[in-house]
């Protein structure tokens, strides 16, 4: 089968013929329909220091996908060929204390598809049945392809109640933009989104932000005054990994404010801890999705009218993957979809 492979310990990806995956007794074999390019795939493409210490080569990359079941192992009883599914990208051990307690998103030994085990940028992927998610048959296929990052946005945005709250989203990449839409749909009063990239700010506006702020030229304090907010943001969703963004978030929170932090800092971030202590802030780290409560909520959000379609900005056949990666690296995109049908 065709697959996008990290073949060499160098920048780039290679479209190669690789063996079709085998199907163990607990596995589901899925014919991949569409995939989404993630920031993680860009790190692997560029072969940065994180990728160099994390990715064994050769590795089939990619983890955001939707596809159709074509085969199931002997122990699999509730999945059938023809069903439309996505995969939870974190394969957990099932045996650690958190897994046994049903807190699988907190597994101490998570393996990532397309990172530690063969991924989804391929014609077929085989996954344990515990990692397969049935879609509502009415789901839009492009949206189904991005349930993984949509789940990051939902996990973060619904970590603290949003109803009636003023929410600050720092970073309007694809995940920040989806978090804007989720927070608004969940009843936030104001959702203010920041970035330093005007293209991304206009996308956040399309996704329902009350106000977008280019922090290079505008002050969040003034925006708060303009919106009639007197005491600061109730909820912060950190979606950039940028030190200045995180520090400004801490400055802009109300006393007792709650921060959910998804953005991965590229360096150590020094903050004024007095503000955390005296303002009694809560900071919660977010990794992946809750299995499968986040997935359940994603389905219900879409069924209740959440519209994610503006976040999908580019589509390419898989053979044109290079164009997809190039446009993604330009910063002028939301989600980029690769179609795996020949
Ligand atoms: P992205 O890189 O596309 O978006 C980040 C955005 O932050 C960019 O638009 C960038 O311009 C903006 N930004 C940079 N400096 C800023 C500043 N000072 N203020 C405000 N915005 C600023 O990333 P993404 O794919 O949308 O993902 C969001 C973040 O979440 C990334 O840091 C990513 O690594 C991380 N992530 C975490 C998990 C997890 O499980 N914790 C999963 C996926 C992604
Ligand atoms: Zn575990």
UniProtKB/TrEMBL annotation:
<feature type="domain" description="Alcohol dehydrogenase-like N-terminal">
    <location>
        <begin position="26"/>
        <end position="133"/>
    </location>
</feature>
<keyword id="KW-0862">Zinc</keyword>
<keyword id="KW-0963">Cytoplasm</keyword>
<comment type="similarity">
    <text>Belongs to the zinc-containing alcohol dehydrogenase family.</text>
</comment>
<feature type="site" description="Important for catalytic activity for the proton relay mechanism but does not participate directly in the coordination of zinc atom">
    <location>
        <position position="148"/>
    </location>
</feature>
<comment type="pathway">
    <text>Amino-acid degradation; L-threonine degradation via oxydo-reductase pathway; glycine from L-threonine: step 1/2.</text>
</comment>
<protein>
    <recommendedName>
        <fullName>L-threonine 3-dehydrogenase</fullName>
        <ecNumber>1.1.1.103</ecNumber>
    </recommendedName>
</protein>
<comment type="subunit">
    <text>Homotetramer.</text>
</comment>
<dbReference type="GO" id="GO:0008743">
    <property type="term" value="F:L-threonine 3-dehydrogenase activity"/>
</dbReference>
<feature type="active site" description="Charge relay system">
    <location>
        <position position="43"/>
    </location>
</feature>
<feature type="binding site">
    <location>
        <begin position="262"/>
        <end position="264"/>
    </location>
    <ligand>
        <name>NAD(+)</name>
    </ligand>
</feature>
<feature type="binding site">
    <location>
        <position position="64"/>
    </location>
    <ligand>
        <name>Zn(2+) 1</name>
    </ligand>
</feature>
<dbReference type="InterPro" id="IPR036291">
    <property type="entry name" value="NAD(P)-bd_dom_sf"/>
</dbReference>
<dbReference type="GO" id="GO:0019518">
    <property type="term" value="P:L-threonine catabolic process to glycine"/>
</dbReference>
<comment type="function">
    <text>Catalyzes the NAD(+)-dependent oxidation of L-threonine to 2-amino-3-ketobutyrate.</text>
</comment>
<dbReference type="InterPro" id="IPR004627">
    <property type="entry name" value="L-Threonine_3-DHase"/>
</dbReference>
<feature type="binding site">
    <location>
        <position position="96"/>
    </location>
    <ligand>
        <name>Zn(2+) 2</name>
    </ligand>
</feature>
<dbReference type="Pfam" id="PF00107">
    <property type="entry name" value="ADH_zinc_N"/>
</dbReference>
<feature type="binding site">
    <location>
        <position position="63"/>
    </location>
    <ligand>
        <name>Zn(2+) 1</name>
    </ligand>
</feature>
<feature type="binding site">
    <location>
        <position position="99"/>
    </location>
    <ligand>
        <name>Zn(2+) 2</name>
    </ligand>
</feature>
<keyword id="KW-0479">Metal-binding</keyword>
<feature type="active site" description="Charge relay system">
    <location>
        <position position="40"/>
    </location>
</feature>
<dbReference type="InterPro" id="IPR002328">
    <property type="entry name" value="ADH_Zn_CS"/>
</dbReference>
<feature type="binding site">
    <location>
        <position position="107"/>
    </location>
    <ligand>
        <name>Zn(2+) 2</name>
    </ligand>
</feature>
<dbReference type="InterPro" id="IPR013149">
    <property type="entry name" value="ADH-like_C"/>
</dbReference>
<dbReference type="InterPro" id="IPR050129">
    <property type="entry name" value="Zn_alcohol_dh"/>
</dbReference>
<feature type="binding site">
    <location>
        <position position="200"/>
    </location>
    <ligand>
        <name>NAD(+)</name>
    </ligand>
</feature>
<feature type="binding site">
    <location>
        <begin position="286"/>
        <end position="287"/>
    </location>
    <ligand>
        <name>NAD(+)</name>
    </ligand>
</feature>
<feature type="binding site">
    <location>
        <position position="93"/>
    </location>
    <ligand>
        <name>Zn(2+) 2</name>
    </ligand>
</feature>
<dbReference type="Pfam" id="PF08240">
    <property type="entry name" value="ADH_N"/>
</dbReference>
<feature type="binding site">
    <location>
        <position position="38"/>
    </location>
    <ligand>
        <name>Zn(2+) 1</name>
    </ligand>
</feature>
<dbReference type="InterPro" id="IPR013154">
    <property type="entry name" value="ADH-like_N"/>
</dbReference>
<dbReference type="InterPro" id="IPR011032">
    <property type="entry name" value="GroES-like_sf"/>
</dbReference>
<feature type="domain" description="Alcohol dehydrogenase-like C-terminal">
    <location>
        <begin position="174"/>
        <end position="299"/>
    </location>
</feature>
<keyword id="KW-0520">NAD</keyword>
<dbReference type="GO" id="GO:0008270">
    <property type="term" value="F:zinc ion binding"/>
</dbReference>
<feature type="binding site">
    <location>
        <position position="195"/>
    </location>
    <ligand>
        <name>NAD(+)</name>
    </ligand>
</feature>
<dbReference type="GO" id="GO:0005737">
    <property type="term" value="C:cytoplasm"/>
</dbReference>
<keyword id="KW-0560">Oxidoreductase</keyword>
<feature type="binding site">
    <location>
        <position position="175"/>
    </location>
    <ligand>
        <name>NAD(+)</name>
    </ligand>
</feature>
């Amino acid at each position: 089968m065709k697959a996008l492979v990290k073949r060499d310990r160098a920048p780039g990806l290679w479209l190669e013929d690789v063996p079709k995956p085998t199907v163990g007794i607990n596995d589901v074999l899925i014919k991949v329909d569409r995939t989404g390019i993630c920031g993680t795939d860009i790190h692997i493409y560029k072969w940065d220091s994180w990728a160099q210490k994390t990715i064994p080569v050769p590795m089939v990359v990619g983890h955001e996908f939707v596809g159709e079941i074509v085969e199931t192992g002997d122990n699999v009883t509730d999945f059938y060929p023809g069903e439309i599914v996505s995969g939870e990208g974190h394969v957990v051990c099932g045996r650690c204390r958190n897994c046994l307690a049903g807190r699988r998103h907190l597994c101490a030994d998570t393996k990532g598809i397309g990172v530690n085990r063969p991924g989804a940028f391929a014609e077929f992927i085989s996954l344990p049945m515990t990692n397969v998610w049935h879609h509502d048959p009415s789901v839009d296929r492009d949206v189904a392809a991005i349930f993984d990052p949509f789940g990051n946005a939902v996990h973060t945005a619904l970590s603290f109640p949003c109803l009636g709250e003023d929410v600050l989203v720092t970073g309007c990449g694809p995940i920040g933009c989806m978090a804007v839409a989720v927070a608004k749909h969940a009843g936030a009063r104001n959702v203010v989104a920041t970035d330093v990239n005007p293209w991304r700010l206009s996308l956040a506006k399309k996704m329902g932000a009350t106000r977008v702020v280019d922090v290079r030229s505008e002050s969040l304090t003034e925006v708060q005054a303009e919106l009639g907010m007197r005491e600061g943001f109730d909820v912060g969703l950190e979606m950039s990994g940028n030190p200045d963004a995180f520090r400004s978030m801490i400055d802009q929170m109300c006393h007792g404010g709650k921060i959910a932090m998804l953005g991965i800092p590229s360096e150590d971030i020094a903050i004024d801890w007095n503000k955390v202590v005296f303002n009694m802030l809560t900071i919660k780290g977010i990794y992946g999705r809750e299995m499968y409560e986040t997935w359940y909520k994603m389905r219900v959000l879409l069924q209740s009218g959440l519209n994610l379609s503006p976040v999908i900005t580019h589509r390419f056949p898989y053979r044109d993957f290079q164009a997809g990666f190039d446009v993604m690296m330009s910063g002028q995109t939301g989600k980029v979809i690769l179609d795996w049908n020949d």
